[in-house]
Amino acid sequence: MKGIGYVKNRKTLTLIMIAVTLLTTYFVLHSFRVFDSNTFMAKNGVLSLQHWDWQNEKTIALDGEWDFYPDELIVPSPDEDVFERYKHQSILVPTAWDRYRAESATPYGTGTYRLLIQVPEDDLYGVKLNTIRNANKVYLNGEELGSAGVPSKSTEEYHFDYKKYVVLGNSRNKQIELVILVANYDYAVGGIVSSLQFGLADQILAKQGREKFIEAFLISGYFLFSFIYFTTYLQHKRKFRYELYFSLFSLAQAVHISTINERWIYLLFPELSPASQLGIQAISLTLFVLFFLLFVYHFFNMSASKRIVTALSAILGFQALAVCVLNITIDLMVKVPFPLIQLIVSGTTAISYVYIFIMLLKAYKKKTDESDYVLIVVFAFAVYGILLAIVLLFDVDIEVPSLLLFLIMVISLALLMSHRSQQAYNKVEELSNELLEFDRMKDDFLVKTSHELGTPLHGIMNLSQSLLEGVEGSLKRKQQESVILIHSVSRRLAGLVNDLLFISRIKQGEMSFTSRPIELRIIGEVLAEIAYVMPPTLPVQLINTIPENLPLVYTDEQKLKQVFFNLIYNAIKFTKQGTITISAQIIEEQMHISVEDTGPGIASDYQDLIFTTFYQVESSRTRKSEGLGLGLSITKKIVESAGGRIWVTSEIGKGSCFTFTIPLATNQQLLKHNEINNHEMNEQVTSTQMKNREMKQSQVILPTKVKGPKPYTILVVDDEPANLKVLINMLHSLHYSVIAVGSGQEALDIIETEKVDLLILDLMMPHMTGYEVCKTIRQKQDLVDLPVIILTAAGQLSDLVVSFQLGTNDYLQKPVNLKELEMRIESLLLMKKSAQDAVEHELSYFYAQITPHFLYNTLNSIIALSWSDQKKTRTALEHLSTYFRGKLDYQKQCSLVPLEEEIQLVMAYLAIEQLRFEERLHIEYNIDETIQTYIPAMTLQPLVENAVTHGIVKSKKGGTLRLTIEREQQHIKITIEDNGVGIPLEKQQELMRGRNERLGFTNPFRKLSLIKGARFQMNSEVGKGTTIIIHMLEIKDNRQMF
């Protein structure tokens, strides 16, 4: 099929070239009068047309032998024959008058042409004058009817002009005397050099109209080409320079054609002088050759030499500039001989045309799919070049055919560019189809991947939850933190998977809307609270300026909530500091809602792209982008599905403003919604009255405490008394102790004063939302210390994401199912108990390690005393007995002991050491006895022992040990200070990093690291002593230590 198409194209091209060749040959031969017969040729100054058939012949060329009066300008008279007294000779017309002049064979001078035309009958006739160089005046039957320039024997009075025009006149006695006065002082060829056309007035005017139409058609065509390809160049974002050069070339060609033949340029500039017209003609000719050269070079850039093109371009550009400047400054066309200018312009044009032909020929030889078009261009350009050569060599008038031929070449080039554009379009369309297929495959892949990821993600979440609940045994605290992190990350990844599934459902048209009239300000306040608590470390102020008196909007409440969440979260994510303002106003029956931030802004090039799925503009933001780039895409699709639109206005460095529209609720929609509500209310009147009575019965005095047999206390927070009553009953049926309050602040107060094992918190409450309560709790207690379950009515994904980011452990959707509530509570309490057991086991391990070490040192001290002082030995044994009693009590209890008991051990130990070292050891106590808290067993004694044995005793002078226990704001500060030998800096670093095997220091340090809110600090200087400071929270319940 391709071969058949190729053969057809070749046949078509062959026929076109044959037709062009025949037409060109005809016009050339016609210009040389090959087809003219001698029937109507002038002889001896007379042209007999008595047998002229004007209906068939139309117009006749006034060629032949004219009477010529050299060096004379004879003005004829209608009443007498003024030519009898002048000598004349015959001259062939059209031809140059050089060899017919009497005085010299130069083309410069004057002369008068005379021809008598015998017509078959008297009528109105016309003569169309073509090229007469270089000024002329025409008389018919002694009457002056037209002129071009001013012919004169005086060069000062002479003014050249070679315009073509038509004269009309009546015959007398079937005869017309045609006299033409000619002068030439400029051109190398003078006289009548082109045939004059004669005929009836209507015929001549019709012929002139046809030629004008052809030139107007050519000018309009080139202007149209210029406009089309300049517009195309701009549409292609100035990518293809050859389109610009083709546009400029067409424009220059249009201007050039308007300066020749019928000279249409005078329609715009009627006062234009012939010299200026010649200057514009020369400049436009030079420019259209320049731009045509550049067009061919850039269009066939693989077929050209850049150096040659640059050189020719420089010559042509300088030539155009020189002609323009000199014609303005020194009247170039008057002062400089026109043949010289013509020679220069023709020379540069000929050289450029030769190289253009070479480039076209090289392009054709490549045999590409564009070769058919290039062949027409090459052929038309070659024939056009031949015509130009004929015009220059023989001075014949074939300008219109040559212009038409050049237009054919230009049209071929335009078709070639169109062909190339069509190929590019086809390629783009093919690639677009491939991209659409890839996009569909991508969507399928994402959907399948999301589904496949869902199963292992739920497995990860369930396994991590089981580990936290202690199913596989107790975890150490660091292990628990890692598992909690895994659980949190898996939940976040599950959220991304849900986003992918959501965007896939949108693309498949599966997103459903449940629209109803809703109040905008309520939704705005809820979402403002969500966004406010999301980034706790950012200094961003959220401002909600939505008025209270706005009318209702008609949309899906949950979808609108998601749009708000996405926009506000996006603003917070990219705003380091400043404000985020939410506003709304009514414009043209639409609610316009804006979220404006003071972030870094978005560049204009990216403002349309940010709503594209998966698109992220990291360079336009100052913070690293997070997520998959789905938020704004989902937002746009939701808004558009609801009948609105969304856009962004932004300025770099000043911020961005996202605005979307929502339809207002119409009166009909409001009435329908009210009718539904009224219908439901009418059906449930009795039920509502019963519920009101139940509500009155369910009123409870808050806070309410209900004791249960299980050793766990659960705090319930809800602003609805009925909901509180239901939850209290459920928890009581599960045998838990319950404390119920009605506000977030009351919950925080209870947590400060009561032992609470788990918190059940309603999400939406007045004054202080569940978000704010959870955020405040997490500043003091982590996920293990106090598990939190959030209750939500909507179960919206955005609510859950924010809840987990703020530190909730789990969530339940209202209405609460008893069995589900029981399972969630048991899993979280089991996780908490597992964490406490793990910490206690680790503390017991440290305690077991320190006991033999302490006993060994103490017994050594008593043995040493027994040899020197039996009384002191008995005192030491009493202190040791005190220690053993305490030790036996510790083994029966947990690894956390009251601070008072730990101090007794320290004092017993120091009493033994004082008996041993006497004056070398001094003890100072400063203890606030009102402090009551718990502390890991054997924490202070090893540190005191370390200060005595490694600090004071090693000093020759001995020293003093000070033990201070005091309150400092909300903490307890324990200070162990000695003025012993001190610890070198390198040794201090080893001790703080746990790289030292000194049990008296490392074990207390590790035990304290397991205690919530505990901090350990050491300051030491060699030769001056050591100070150890412990900061702890004052906690009265040993279970609150973890």
Automatic annotation (TrEMBL):
Membrane-spanning parts: 12-29, 213-232, 278-300, 312-334, 340-361, 373-394
Q: Which GO MF term does the entry hold, naming one?
A: phosphorelay sensor kinase activity
Q: Kindly report, in one word, the top-level EC class recorded for this enzyme.
A: transferase
- Which residues are modified to 4-aspartylphosphate? D762
| Ranges for domain Response regulatory | 713-829
Instruction: Check the record and name the Pfam families matching this protein.
Output: 7TMR-DISM_7TM (PF07695), HATPase_c (PF02518), His_kinase (PF06580), HisKA (PF00512), Response_reg (PF00072)
Q: Please tell me where this protein is predominantly located.
A: membrane
Q: Which PANTHER family match?
A: OSMOSENSING HISTIDINE PROTEIN KINASE SLN1, TWO-COMPONENT HISTIDINE PROTEIN KINASE
Protein name in UniProt: histidine kinase
* Organism field: Paenibacillus nasutitermitis
Kindly list the organism's lineage: Bacteria, Bacillati, Bacillota, Bacilli, Bacillales
